[in-house]
């Protein structure tokens, strides 16, 4: 049975579903990377995702337009981000805690709206897989890489964009400066508040899209608490990736592929208790980090509110 | 002064968020979106109106939501049906606490209901049992029911109820075995225990009895809420060659979605799931708890407050295999399913669980 | 006089913020066509209305306080422990195992050993992320999130397998729960309610944690490392060791909270497959309670009671006015956001006060040191 794990069907299955599963993590974790790079820890990602899930689903369900759904998720995520930014930047609230508050708010609000507006679980016809003539037909690789829907591609496209913005643009420089040494950035005329508002709202928007990718692209349903801890994993993956978009990508893929591996282990009837199999991605994520002891430091000003000395 | 400006902005900002979210929330009451939306206010009114006769009052505490298309909904729908049968809220009225997945909170809810005069308090979750064991002796005049189990703890005021979900599972298994062409069947479960395990074991027995050569792949995803993982488990089954699938608990909606996309057939349990994917849901084993509730209500009215346990099964109509009309089930398979139901009822088929 | 008023204001600030959040909640209740006054009366009544309901509030507050005590230690050491859920679970598992295995010993002995086992279990589950952070540079947010998920699966595995109630092992619907603890092992009740000894233990430990943090070298070093690791290293403090200690102790208190839930409330472990089914999210809510209490062990007592009251009252509100449970979650979130935001006014006042008084020691990080200095002066 163990040997079956190495058959092509299984390998293709693991890779393809790993790539799919990584999508919501990527959107949310890249967004979180931006806010953490600027010195803000947002633990409310899960709540933003849930509201994004619902907004996208509801709008797509009622209007039949999926892109409007994505837009709605982005707006809702951005509004949540705005509130988070106000609380952390202007009111200097302890970031970890306010994030938990926003998580609870999103968790309850998405459920409440679901009960009031929908009342029952429905499905929607979500984004379809894109068939790319030629590429999609390549055996193996076609199945893994070229048989996904548009939001999956979007997530992977986001990685180089995020890398470029963070490392090669003035905006990126400002974000990093604000996260490393806000006082210095401030004295050079960079508005710490503005930069942080931008990154937190961007993070919220991307969390919204992460939600949309679940509710109208991958799962095509909405259910209360459907993210079920995914947002917290996304935050953890930012640490895994050491605040680099590529690292986040690696973490998301590792976590997702091990998750899909454990599903295969059960399907193939390999005698491992199901609970132990479910543990695998969590254990491995930690182990990989331990094995590759990295000396990367967190942005120095992470979780520290900025206040100008007067 | 600046402070106040901030307070004002903050409150305004939040008010804005709220009104943005809240405004549309007013409309749905009129939208036909949900049947229960119409029913829920009806109950509330009933509480206010002076009931003509003394209504039978029931409180139910459940771990998931009333609209989960699974375990919670099966009880909610049953209570609605009982209410209709008994002539409306003037005769049968009920309140509920949903999403009480924290055992401790559920215990507080049960105790609180017990102090008010409800005729019957239903603890709709097997994890509530030990709390009930503590609470029931303190309220000897109140009747309690809990499920799913057969254990009344020997208390004179506790009823126990259980679903023989392996029976419907068996029938579903027989159908699945007759419908599969690839001879691979996939199962998505939450945690390997309780009602879900019972159903899955019954299902496996049904498949094995029909065709022992069929492979049944089982995947317990370790969660009742992780829709994404349930969906990926379904994808895994499909990649492993499954062309018929089943699953238990509320997170299977994710799996049904994937089945729908791939054109893989689905057999459901607990509450009807046909509405989710009319083209692929073959049939659902639907729980009709009203069979048990009616009996318990009758007993309580006579003055018996507990001490008995009930099972809903195919024989007493508490479990019904509901075929999905939108799916064209081959006549011979349907006949075989009905035969199997008969066989289980008259005892000619016995299900051996592992 | 003025400073006393201002201390009073500081203490009342979380209450005021809670009221503001409830005011926003009132608007939502109106949208749901529920009379907010009626709803909040139900909330208040549910939390404080009778002797029994107040006892329920205290029962709810007990694990919150214990987790909060751990959070006081870890946040002061500048490590963010969001693994309380997992630590509670592992502590409870170990404590339950003790109670189910050693049944031939006197009750007081086993209960004591079991609670210590819970403390130990939590310490292990908190110590692992501590070691990972201190020696392998694995961020504690990542590891504690992962360890929570691992603990849940471990619990599910044990409760449906090796530790399952023998009475459940043979029946068809195997409820994933352990056997019930012997009556003699249960924590004594304090009144004819569910209020148990655990509440007193928690309060006693709050005092101990206060002493630990401000009257012992260990506490001083944990705080020093939290305030400025670089300065501490120069001062000769072994920084990694105290990082581990902060997370380990923090986990230990959460583990004890888990053990006390089993020995004081449930008398067995049951799982619904999720962490919160067992913990009631105390591992998270304890963080909030600690912050309500300004990361101070003594202030965490009233803070936990306030938060416990809110949770108990909200549940009772759900029952009486039949609002969806989701609304309660929203309210909970609003309260957290409002309270944490209101902190700014307290800090502002402190700064003004401190500006008036001469500084006592150099402060590497103005914000945090001020908070601490002020609180050292408080009780």
Index terms:
heterotrimer; A: 310 residues; mainly alpha; ABC transporter involved in vitamin B12 uptake, BtuC; 12 helices; B: 354 residues; alpha/beta; Rossmann fold; 6-stranded parallel beta sheet; 6-stranded mixed beta sheet; 11 helices; globular; disordered N terminus
Strand content of chain C: under 5%
The quaternary structure here is heterotrimer
Please give the CATH class of chain C. Mainly Alpha
Average pLDDT over all residues of chain B = 83
Rg of chain B, Å, rounded: 22 Å
Uncertain segments of chain C of ≥5 residues (pLDDT<50)? 359-379
Summarize the amount of helix of chain C as a percent range.
over 70%
Supply the number of helical segments of chain C.
16
Number of domains of chain B: 2
Give the topology string of chain B: H per helix, E per strand. Answer: HHEHEHEHEEHEHEHEHEEHEEH
Model description:
The complex is a heterotrimer of chains A (310), B (354) and C (379). Helix content of chain A is 70%, strand content 0%. Chain A is built from twelve helices and no strands. The longest helix of chain A is centred in the first third of the chain and has 30 residues, at 8-37. Chain B has 354 residues and is of the alpha/beta class. In chain B, 44% of the residues lie in helices and 19% in strands. In chain B, the strands form two sheets. A six-stranded parallel beta sheet of chain B has the order 2-1-3-4-5-11, with helices on both faces. Chain B has a six-stranded mixed beta sheet with strand order 7-6-8-9-10-12, sandwiched between helices. With 379 residues, chain C is an all-alpha fold. Chain C has one domain (2-377): ABC transporter involved in vitamin B12 uptake, BtuC. Chain C is 76% helix and 0% strand. Chain C has helices spanning 2-31, 36-48, 51-76, 84-101, 107-136, 140-160, 166-169, 198-215, 217-227, 229-234, 239-266, 275-279, 282-292, 300-321, 325-356, 366-377. Chain C is built from 16 helices and no strands.
How are the secondary structure elements laid out?
The complex is a heterotrimer of chains A (about 300), B (about 350) and C (about 375).
Chain A (H helix, E strand, L loop, with lengths): L7 H30 L7 H19 L2 H25 L4 H23 L23 H5 L4 H19 L1 H11 L1 H6 L4 H27 L11 H11 L4 H23 L6 H18 L19
Chain B lengths: L1 H21 L12 H14 L7 E6 L9 H15 L6 E6 L5 H13 L4 E5 L4 H7 L7 E5 L10 E6 L1 H15 L4 E6 L4 H17 L4 E6 L6 H13 L4 E4 L5 H10 L2 E6 L10 E7 L2 H13 L6 E4 L6 E5 L7 H16 L8
Parallel strand pairs in B: 1-2, 1-3, 3-4, 4-5, 5-11, 6-7, 6-8, 8-9, 9-10
Antiparallel strand pairs in B: 10-12
Chain C lengths: L1 H30 L4 H13 L2 H26 L7 H18 L5 H30 L3 H21 L5 H4 L28 H18 L1 H11 L1 H6 L4 H28 L8 H5 L2 H11 L7 H22 L3 H32 L9 H12 L2
